[in-house]
Amino acid sequence: LALLLPLFLLAFAVAAVRAARGADLVHAHWLPSAAVALLTRKPVVAQVWGTDVELARRVPWLARGVLRRARVVVAPSTVLAGTARGLGARAVKVIPSGVDIADDIGEEDEPPFVLFAGRLSPEKGVLELVAAADGIPLVVVGDGPLRDRVPGARGFVPHDELELLYGRAAIIAVPSYREGFGVVCAEAMAHGRPVVASAVGGLLDLVSDGVTGLHVPPGDIPALRAALERLLADRDLRRRFGDAGRERVRERFSWAAVTDSTLAAYADACAGPGTTR
């Protein structure tokens, strides 16, 4: 497969140049795509997501060449924006992923349970959550290399089914060690659910500690358990956090807000270097 990489990149570049002939700009998602997009000789908006930035730290000289030439760099969180600047990006905008706002807030199950949704891998902190939630009702949705070590994991479920789980859960736990944005966290808040999240990456932008949920240090099992127990013991607090989180998502992470910010980034890119608003 490694031997096929040059052919893949060549085909990708040819396709990108052809597709961009009538375009005003190229919006490239993921750093390697931005490198290809620069070949089109169009203004480039480079979107970084997290995994690409982690890889870029290993070859910063290569990342700098791409990020400096992009007219605008878009990052989904403040932390990733700072990392992009450190790698040479000049005009950087923080534009989160948009999420749908649930029409109705569901009723919690009784007894209340904690929900985890995501890849079952070490960086997601799922084993720490299993340990912290010992004796607490826990529903785990997702798959990955740690599934055999997560009792009762349900595997991947259709998104409609996941939304029903958001509406029935008392708390959503996002105990990641790193998170470029945190779509599960945003979706949970859009369903009016409080979130217990690690104080890392995009989760710092999403969860306002003590207002929409609780932050805990990544990997701190006692702190994670204490946060879960605090919320499970106080239904009114869960409701306050959930209402505040839903309003925060409506104001900052709705599709309307994200679309407006993205169109503004396009206008800046087309206007030329040094013209960001």
SSE layout and pairings?
Layout: H1 5-19, E1 26-29, H2 31-37, E2 44-47, H3 51-56, H4 60-69, E3 72-75, H5 78-86, E4 92-94, E5 114-117, H6 126-132, E6 138-141, H7 159-168, E7 171-174, H8 183-190, E8 195-198, H9 203-206, E9 213-216, H10 221-232, H11 235-252, H12 255-271
Parallel strand pairs: 1-2, 2-3, 3-4, 5-6, 5-7, 7-8, 8-9
Short description:
The protein has helices at residues 5-19, 31-37, 51-56, 60-69, 78-86, 126-132, 159-168, 183-190, 203-206, 221-232, 235-252, 255-271; strands at residues 26-29, 44-47, 72-75, 92-94, 114-117, 138-141, 171-174, 195-198, 213-216.
Question: Any key phrases for this structure?
Answer:
four-stranded parallel sheet, 12 helices, alpha/beta, globular, 277 residues, 9 strands
Could you characterize what this model shows?
It is a single chain. The chain is α/β, with parallel strands linked by helices and 277 residues long. It is 44% helix and 13% strand. It is built from twelve helices and nine strands. The strands form two sheets. A five-stranded parallel beta sheet has the order 6-5-7-8-9, with helices on both faces. Helix 6 (126-132) packs across helix 10 (221-232). The termini are far apart.
How many whole angstroms does the radius of gyration measure?
20 Å
Compute the separation of the termini in Å: 43 Å
The number of helical runs is 12
Strand order of the largest sheet: 6-5-7-8-9
Taking all residues together, what is the mean pLDDT? 92
Q: Pairing-aware structural class of the strands and helices?
A: alpha/beta
